[in-house]
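During the no-cost extension, the postdoctoral fellow (Dr. R.K.) reprocessed legacy sequence entries with the updated structure-token encoder. One reprocessed record is reproduced below for audit purposes.
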Amino acid sequence: MEAIRASGIEFSVFFYNPNIRPKKEYELRKQENIRFAEKHSIPFIDADYDLDNWFKSAKGLELEQERDIQCTMCSDMRFERMAMYAHENSFDTVSSALGISRWKNIEQINDSGLRTASHYPPLTYLTYNWRTKGGSERMPEISKGKNFYMQEYCRCAYSLRDTNKWRMENGRGKIKLGENYYGS
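Re-encoded structure tokens follow.
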């Protein structure tokens, strides 16, 4: 958002994350997005917490690995909702900052965005590697400096399960929900 603002592009934040579990984690992440958007006068669009639909879509994918078919399903579902909203509200371009996360495969994210936008001509999906030009380093710097909440797993129940399993196998405690992994 910092880079987009600096470019002079007018944009809105579209928040649709039915995958985030548990609800406490969802609310924490949503409030951080709202806080940033309000601070910078960026319109915030809340698409609500469609958890039952997400679990229905994820049925049968519970044991897939991070960045696999389950993540594609999740991205497709979320991009579809965003693209439909954009189309219905006369936006001409959509994008996502999901690719800046080290938990995500940027090609998978961009493929999902391009595929979904193609269902709503003339909507365009802007691909951009947010990790370049210091983006990967800037994200935690901003988060620490502004005391933004960040957690150490992607977001869904399966990611939390698998991250906790890895942490326990490597002598680290389970993730404590609501605690910022930066320690602030």
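The two ends are 22 Å apart (CA to CA). The domain at 2-169 is CATH 3.40.50 (Rossmann fold). The remaining legacy entries will be reprocessed before the final report is submitted.
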